[in-house]
């Protein structure tokens, strides 16, 4: 059996919010021109030590900084895990939606013809679908997920602004969750 991924489940990767903004500029122009709806769902996936466990130290920022300081690349299993998360996200949204990996542990889902209500439904569905185990390498791994949303034009009129608004929503949700525990 070939180790190549089916092209329909391949998730492109960008390294910055600026690159993300450039990639979605065409969709934003069409929304402005024709009065369309668009939402961005931002996901951060962090490897867990075990199911229901805690996040690895300071993931993802501290882990990336530690790897950079040590002059090492991410472990192959970490790359495989994020590829598996990306494929699962791609498989759980509509074919017309765009899924991008942004950096090491983040994903942006561009939901076309969707507002806040639809983005909330997709978020609930993805939270359920993505929290399962991932067969990676010779074992099973789990991820901790956080999600936030932003809707055009309220969340911003540029792609990077929408992504930053969705990340801000994610941080607010994390703060509320921490305050409730």
UniProtKB/TrEMBL annotation:
Gene3D superfamilies: 3.30.70.270. It is an enzyme of class 2 (transferase). Residues 36-181 form the GGDEF domain. InterPro entries: GGDEF_dom (IPR000160), Nucleotide_cyclase (IPR029787), Rev_trsase/Diguanyl_cyclase (IPR043128). GO terms for molecular function: diguanylate cyclase activity. Keywords: Nucleotidyltransferase, Transferase. Its EC number is 2.7.7.65. This is Diguanylate cyclase. It comes from Roseateles amylovorans.
